[in-house]
Amino acid sequence: MGMMIGTASLPGQQDVYMRIRSEGFRPILIELKSFTEDPATGQAGLIRETVAADLENSGFFYVWEPGTAGPAAAVYVEAGFTVRGTQMSLSASLRETATRQTVFEKRYEGETGGERLLAHRLADDIVLHLVGDYGVATTRIAFTSRRNVSSEIRVMDYDGKDIRAVTANGSLNLSPAWSPDGRRLLFTTYVHENPDLALVELESGDMRILNRRKGLHSAPAWSPDGRRIAFAMTEAGNTDLYLCDPDGRLIRRLTSGPAIDSSPSWSPDGREIAFTSDRSGSPQVYLMSADGGNVRRLTYTGSYNDSPSWSPRGDLIAYVSRETGGFQIYTIDPAGENVRRITDGRGYHEDPSWSPGGFHLVYASNRDGRWDIYMSAWDGSRTRRLTFSGGNVCPSWSPSINR
């Protein structure tokens, strides 16, 4: 998928993926021209600012402003915002600067109060048409927020705004995990005093416990097809990995033995699972087939490695490694090579989670004195703090959502 910018065609999805991970990558210059409104509400300016932030946060674009030195923008956007009663619409067009050829035109509609969502939808369409990959502007991040003696599940937009409560039961609710369709969350809850797996429907808020077995149930992870859930369960005094279906029925036990096995993360094709085990004497990251076979150790650098998160593109696994100054986030490929530290060494960093396209990571850190949620590019650059209240941990990035 591509369009002509001058004499060169914009690359397709895989080509852009390779280029953005190379030293020679240069963002596309884009201009956001007039965003008109009828009647004058002041919201058009908010929409333009949101689109500009979304595009620059994607890592694919640099928003060109009039008077900027250097080359002119390759493409530009014009938009008009209208409000009629409780309904609003945003009509936008994307064009080449040199030829004025239309790349796409689209009308976005919604109810008043949802201006940011209109902007996010426009930004994601710009990314899709110019890059050939889905943007993250309409995605969301679930996380655990610690307040006094309770920990509740919250959901926010990818940029840290519009935080909403998912649970409010006054108990401990930990480690949220998105369903592949983005409509449900799994997490561990102590609401019935036992650490159970719970599933909540985000639209209705309905919550149910998946099973009533005694013992710890933790670190749930959906398979990419949504048919299986990997999780850690303590039974007979030992923590192992199991599979169940979305109704809580056990499918199989994946690991057994005296070691503690936890933190499962699926490969994007659903054929393998990365997990943490101390079977070698200290926590390390391992890989196994989705049926529990072909177990092999992945990490050998560092004495304590935990919390693997497999990139949606399949080429990298993020994990946490303990160093003298605290836990840091690293990436490694599935062959056990190309180890790279992502965080800068200030403070502790935990619970990495990938964006749907694999270009960004979100994680918890106390680098600024309190535990909050941060986002960075895949290589650790362009770090942004998303929450500021403290006590925020266990982030989980949603799949691409049609909002």
Search tags:
403 residues; mainly beta; Rossmann fold; Neuraminidase; 2 domains; five-stranded mixed β-sheet; 31 strands; 10% helix
What do these coordinates show?
With 403 residues, this protein is mainly beta. The protein has two domains: 4-131, Rossmann fold, CATH 3.40.50; 140-397, 6 Propeller (Neuraminidase), CATH 2.120.10.30. Helices cover 10% and strands 45% of the residues. It has three helices and 31 strands. It has a five-stranded mixed β-sheet, covered by helices on one side. It has a four-stranded antiparallel β-sheet with strand order 10-9-8-31, with no helix packed on it. Helix 2 runs parallel beside helix 3 (115-131). The protein is globular, with a radius of gyration of 22 Å. Residues 1-13 have low confidence and may be disordered.
Shape: globular
Residue fraction in strands: 35-45%
CATH architecture of the largest domain: 6 Propeller
What is the name of the CATH topology of the largest domain? Neuraminidase
Structural category is mainly beta
CATH homologous superfamily identity of the largest domain: TolB, C-terminal domain
**Integer average pLDDT:** 92
Query: Strands across the major sheet, in which order?
Result: 4-3-5-6-7
Q: What does the radius of gyration come to? A: 22 Å
- Low-pLDDT parts are 1-13
Number of strand segments: 31
Cα end-to-end separation: 23 Å
- Number of helix segments? 3
* Main sheet record: 5 strands, mixed
